[in-house]
């Protein structure tokens, strides 16, 4: 008993000791927490007292401001600190867009808008010159240039360079051979670091001195071989060289140690390109498929990013030259239609993109660090990977098989299966989609081939990437359904539903944007779960492809717990209705990007003629309307480029436009979308397509109505386009719209290259 009593005392003693220790730990933790809060406060006070961002030198702040996208963003930096509010005023970026200036002028001053713009530029420059203020950037977009304006532009440039400008962005419109010739002051600047020229003539100058020039962009400029070579050799600090739609140059030879980036886009007279640049990091060549060109990148052993958008050049590089780039990380090739096999090797390659694979049947890839792979073509070749370590892959395939072959063992699916089997079944997710339907597999098990002729695959590891890809598909497709095949006991389907479901009747995600160019959330009407039996019953009332797809889902996935199906319904963009004196008009669109300046031809009684200037996109458009029985020629909208002209002459009033379709997509990677192609349909004929059918398509048609006006945005290209519709002579269009006979569709993107119209 005594021993047991001692044990109880010892037990109580240990208990009290443990409680004391716990209390001491808690107190210690609290003291540490209090001390941590004090440290954070002291740190915040020290950071606030130092305010390092305000202590940056002026030239560093100016450099930061120069990297921002536009002047408005630079102005917003005033909120960073009190000193930046004053430093901003010393950073001068003079930007003059003639079209934007003209758009802000009232109709009463329309006749003098060109004169007013010139006076505006002169007055603005005079203020800076009279106060002896440095001009960091001088940007001039002048569309109504005439040779009589040359002395005036010379004076502007002379005054700007006298203030030691660092960046010059000069875009001068031209007609025929009437182009602006640059003065010598442009080529003898000690301060210039960036030079972007478009539509000008480079004057032959022997005493070129541009010691600090780092970026040189030339667009739509006629180049002479020896003059261009002299220009490049006189720029010892040049790092970035880009030639876009330039003419005259047949042989491009560049030897420069400081060059890190070279881009050549659609300079279709080029026969040979030779680059000797030991520090070259990025090279991008894009040219016409039928125009041969030889590309040599000798001694470019530092090359990391290579993009070749030309089949013949890609074939030459793949045959015997890729080994010359030992540190190449990203390779983007447009494959020749005749190529049946390809071999790619690179110990540093991390990403490979192959486009236009029509006859390619075999590929050998030796790249131990390859993480990303993308393929676009009509069929899936067999690829032999020496080291398979992909973390994501994208396959965009368009089957040419007959409808009867689909679902009975499609050849395309059999060729894709070996590639999919290389991935870890549990570690990856698969997204398949057609124009109307999306299927998401949480893992790579139990995958079946859906009855689609146009099928895209995306294989990724991260769930965050799934949401990014799904966001893009919802924006471009507006699909009818999203089907999720989850793994067992997974909440993946619920997370997808939570991401899609309507969260707000008036989303604020892109309130800043125009009504017809908002994200998918603004058009989603409803999303709901749908079981297979309900799907099958609904499918019977849908179109043939949807019925086939729903029947396939019922047949393949049993029991119903294997699949979660979401049914999506969408609102068409609401038309803007304008009342006129005698009839109603409807505006549909716009489609395209947000670049350029807005324009609106107005509403007329009909359309007589349409003139398009185009090449790889729609450069400009001009319409001749009918105004109460008389022709009325509207202004041309867009730029001055393009080498093809289409003249559409309607037999008015018996013939009128009832449908317009096209594509929009950026001309240069990373740029704003522009109109790439247009096709017009009247009540008798179809005109086009004109341009390149590439990018995101759009189309509309009207029953019992006609197009009576155009509007949109434009600058150097036709950036966007919209249409004013009105009733045909015998029926009321407005009533048809209200009754639902108006039809507006936007279908899936199409990215393979095609021939121009």
Named CATH topology of the domain at 586-733: Vitelline Membrane Outer Layer Protein I, subunit A
Architecture of the domain at 586-733, CATH level 2? Aligned Prism
Superfamily at the CATH H level of the domain at 586-733?
Jacalin-like lectin domain
Q: Rg, please? A: 32 Å
- Structural class from helices and strands? alpha/beta
- Enumerate how many helices there are, as a single number: 15
Distance N to C terminus = 107 Å
The coarse silhouette is globular
Query: In CATH, what is the class of the domain at 586-733?
Result: Mainly Beta
Strand content: 25-35%
The major beta sheet can be summarized as: 19 strands, mixed
* pLDDT < 50 runs, ≥5 residues: 1-33, 43-48, 401-409, 511-515, 574-583, 731-757
Q: Helicity level, as a percent range?
A: 25-40%
| Strands, total number | 42
Provide mean pLDDT, rounded: 78
Structural write-up:
Residues 1-15 have a biased composition (Basic residues). This is Mannose/glucose-specific lectin. Residues 1-38 are annotated as: Disordered. GO terms for molecular function: D-glucose binding; D-mannose binding. Residues 29-38 have a biased composition (Basic and acidic residues). It is a single chain. The protein has 757 residues and is α/β, with parallel strands linked by helices. Among the domains are: 304-399 and 414-421; 423-504 and 519-572, no CATH class; 586-733, Vitelline Membrane Outer Layer Protein I, subunit A, CATH 2.100.10.30. The chain has 15 helices and 42 strands. The strands form 7 sheets. It has a 19-stranded mixed beta sheet, with helices on both faces. A 5-stranded antiparallel beta sheet has the order 28-29-41-40-30. Strands 31, 32, 33, 34 and 35 form a 5-stranded antiparallel beta sheet that branches. β36 (657-665) and β37 (674-682) form a beta hairpin. α6 (113-130) packs parallel to α7 (150-162) and α13 (532-539) runs antiparallel to α14. It is globular, with a radius of gyration of 32 Å. Mean pLDDT is 78; it is low at 1-33, 43-48, 401-409, 511-515, 574-583 and 731-757.
């Amino acid at each position: 008993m005594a021993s047991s009593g001692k044990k109880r005392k010892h037990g109580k003693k240990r208990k009290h000791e443990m409680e004391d220790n716990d209390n001491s730990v808690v107190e210690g933790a609290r003291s540490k927490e209090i001390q941590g809060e004090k440290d954070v406060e002291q740190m915040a006070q020290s950071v606030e007292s130092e305010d390092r961002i305000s202590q940056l030198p002026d030239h560093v702040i100016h450099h930061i401001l120069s990297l921002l996208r536009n002047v408005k963003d630079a102005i917003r930096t005033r909120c960073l600190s009190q000193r930046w509010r004053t430093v901003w005023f010393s950073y001068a970026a003079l930007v003059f867009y003639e079209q934007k200036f003209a758009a802000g002028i009232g109709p009463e001053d329309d006749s003098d808008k060109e004169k007013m713009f010139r006076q505006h530029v002169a007055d603005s420059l005079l203020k800076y010159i009279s106060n002896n203020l440095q001009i960091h950037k001088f940007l001039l977009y002048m569309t109504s240039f005439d040779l009589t304006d040359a002395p005036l532009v010379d004076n502007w440039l002379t005054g700007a360079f006298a203030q030691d400008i660092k960046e010059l962005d000069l875009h001068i419109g031209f007609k025929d051979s009437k182009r602006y010739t640059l003065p010598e002051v442009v080529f003898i600047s000690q301060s210039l670091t960036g030079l972007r020229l478009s539509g000008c003539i480079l004057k032959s100058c022997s005493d070129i001195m541009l010691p600090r020039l780092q970026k040189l962009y030339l667009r739509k400029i006629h180049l002479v071989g020896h003059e261009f070579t002299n220009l490049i050799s006189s720029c010892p600090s040049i790092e970035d060289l880009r030639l876009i739609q330039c003419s005259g140059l047949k042989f491009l030879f560049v030897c420069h140690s400081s060059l890190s980036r070279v881009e050549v886009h659609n300079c279709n007279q080029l026969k040979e390109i030779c680059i000797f640049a030991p520090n070259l990091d990025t090279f991008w060549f894009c040219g016409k498929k039928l125009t041969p060109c030889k590309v040599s990148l000798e001694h470019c052993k530092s090359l990391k990013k290579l993009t070749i958008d030309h089949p013949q050049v890609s074939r030459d590089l793949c045959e015997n030259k890729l080994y010359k780039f030992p540190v190449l990380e990203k390779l983007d090739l447009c494959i020749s239609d005749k190529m049946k096999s390809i071999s790619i090797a690179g110990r540093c390659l991390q990403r490979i993109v192959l486009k236009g694979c029509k006859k390619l049947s075999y590929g050998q890839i030796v790249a131990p660090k390859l993480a990303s792979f993308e393929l676009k073509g009509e069929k899936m070749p067999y690829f032999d990977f020496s080291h398979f370590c992909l973390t994501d892959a994208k396959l965009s395939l368009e089957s040419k098989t007959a409808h009867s072959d689909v679902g009975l063992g499609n050849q395309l699916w059999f060729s894709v299966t070996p590639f999919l089997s290389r991935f870890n079944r549990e570690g990856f997710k698969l997204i398949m989609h057609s124009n109307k339907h999306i299927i998401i597999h949480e893992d790579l098990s139990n995958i079946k081939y859906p009855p689609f002729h146009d099928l895209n695959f995306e294989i990724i590891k991260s769930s965050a990437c799934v949401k990014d890809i799904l966001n893009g598909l919802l924006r471009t497709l507006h699909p009818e359904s999203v089907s999720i095949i989850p793994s067992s006991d997974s909440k993946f389907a619920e997370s997808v539903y939570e991401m899609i479901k309507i969260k707000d009747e008036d989303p604020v995600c892109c309130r800043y944007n125009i009504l017809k160019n908002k994200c998918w959330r603004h058009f989603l009407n409803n999303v709901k779960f749908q079981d297979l039996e309900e799907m099958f019953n609904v499918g019977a009332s849908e179109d043939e492809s949807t019925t086939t797809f729903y029947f396939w889902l019922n047949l393949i996935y049993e029991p119903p717990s294997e699949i979660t199906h979401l049914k999506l319904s969408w609102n068409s963009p609401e038309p803007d209705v304008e009342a006129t004196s005698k009839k109603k008009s409807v505006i549909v669109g716009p489609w395209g990007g947000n670049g350029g300046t807005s324009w609106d031809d107005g509403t007329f009684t009909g359309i007589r003629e349409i003139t398009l200037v185009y090449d790889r996109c729609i450069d400009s458009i001009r319409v001749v309307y009918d105004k109460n029985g008389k022709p009325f020629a509207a202004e041309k909208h867009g730029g001055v480029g393009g080498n093809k002209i289409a003249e559409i002459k309607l037999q008015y009033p018996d013939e009128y436009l009832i449908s317009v379709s096209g594509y929009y997509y950026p001309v240069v990677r990373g740029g704003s979308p522009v109109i790439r192609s247009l096709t017009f349909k009247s009540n008798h004929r179809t005109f086009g397509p004109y341009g390149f059918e590439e990018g995101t398509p759009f189309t509309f048609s009207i029953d019992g109505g006609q197009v009576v006006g155009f509007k949109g945005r434009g600058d150097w290209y036709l950036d966007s386009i919209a249409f004013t519709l009105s009733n045909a002579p015998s029926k009321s269009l407005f009533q048809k719209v209200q009754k639902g006979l108006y039809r507006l569709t936007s279908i899936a993107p199409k990215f393979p290259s095609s021939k121009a119209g």
